[in-house]
């Protein structure tokens, strides 16, 4: 039973939205939608929690354990990890690039160019090196 959900007695006959069993009037619950039995939460092992009726709990557990489902969740997880790794690598690359520019005596902002048309709104000249392109001590 869900702690934060209020289950109202089902006044009308209908179909359980979770297991599709027919629910006669006076049986099951109504909570925005008809359910045939108490609601339960099932966690998929990846932080996703789905609600279902007690009768469909086993089916949902089996679905979460299915090869296809696990493969799709693993793919999402791997993509997230790759994205995080890429961001961390890009951050490291920027630090190294900055260090290399400093070592060669070039401005770490403009890379030695001194100016860029991208900065036309602020006068096109690099504010860090004042347009010299040289590393600022
Ligand atoms: Zn049901
Ligand atoms: Zn500069």
Walk me through the structure.
- The chain has two helices and seven strands.
- The chain has 137 residues and is α+β, with helices and mostly antiparallel strands.
- Among the domains are: 8-65, no CATH class; 104-137, no CATH class.
- The strands form three sheets. The protein has a three-stranded antiparallel sheet with strand order 1-4-5, with no helix packed on it. The protein has a two-stranded antiparallel ribbon with strand order 2-3.
- One zinc ion binds at residues 107, 109-110, 114, 126, 128-129, 133.
List the helices and strands and how they pair.
Elements: E1 8-9, E2 14-15, E3 22-23, E4 29-30, E5 34-35, E6 39-43, E7 49-53, H1 57-65, H2 67-103
Antiparallel strand pairs: 1-4, 2-3, 4-5, 6-7
Bound molecules: zinc ion (2 copies).
């Amino acid at each position: 039973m869900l702690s934060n959900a209020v289950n109202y007695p089902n006044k009308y006959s209908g179909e359980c939205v979770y297991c599709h069993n027919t629910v006669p009037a006076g049986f099951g619950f109504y909570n925005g939608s008809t359910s045939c039995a108490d609601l339960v939460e099932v966690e998929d092992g990846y932080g996703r929690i789905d609600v279902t009726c007690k009768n469909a709990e086993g089916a949902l557990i089996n679905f979460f354990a299915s090869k296809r489902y696990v493969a799709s969740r693993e793919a999402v997880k791997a993509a997230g990890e790759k994205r995080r790794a890429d961001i961390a690598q890009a951050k490291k690359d920027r630090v190294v690039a900055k260090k290399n520019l400093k070592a060669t005596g070039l401005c770490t902002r403009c890379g030695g160019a001194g100016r860029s048309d991208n900065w036309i709104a602020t006068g096109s000249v690099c504010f860090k090196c004042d347009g010299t392109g040289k590393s600022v001590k």
